[in-house]
Write a structure and sequence with these properties.
The protein has four helices and four strands. It is an alpha/beta fold and about 110 residues long. A four-stranded parallel β-sheet has the order 2-1-3-4, with helices on both faces. Strand 1, helix 1 and strand 2 form a beta-alpha-beta unit. It is found in: Nucleus.
Length: about 110
């Protein structure tokens, strides 16, 4: 059986999270949602820096894409991106950062 394309959608806004989830499910994706960066890291097994590298690949959730809002309380989408890219298990996973704010310096970063 073919494995579903799995997307982790991270957004503090419930309506935006549900919208992304619905669009992706219409496209036959498996979708997991998280309301903030810390929850996303917990889901990925990266919540505690001590355990980050000790996880075996088999115990790590398979995620093909992460879509995250930029502006969230506690941790920005960019901070989430940096942690994900520092992880040996997830550094190859594409991360898309969304923002409704038109801030050129943020877009360039």
């Amino acid at each position: 059986m073919e494995e579903e394309f799995h997307v982790l959608a991270v957004d503090d806004n419930l309506i935006d999270r549900k919208l992304v989830e619905r669009i992706l499910k219409i496209s036959s994706c498996k979708v997991t949602t998280a309301e903030n960066g810390l929850r996303a890291l917990e889901y990925l097994g990266l919540g505690n820096s001590q355990q980050t590298e000790s996880l075996t690949t088999n115990s790590v959730m398979k995620v093909n894409l992460i879509i995250t809002d930029y502006c969230m309380p506690g941790m920005t989408g960019f901070e989430l991106l940096k942690i994900v890219k520092e992880s040996s298990n997830f550094k190859e996973v594409p991360v898309v950062i969304l923002s409704s704010e038109n801030i050129p310096t943020r877009i360039n970063k």
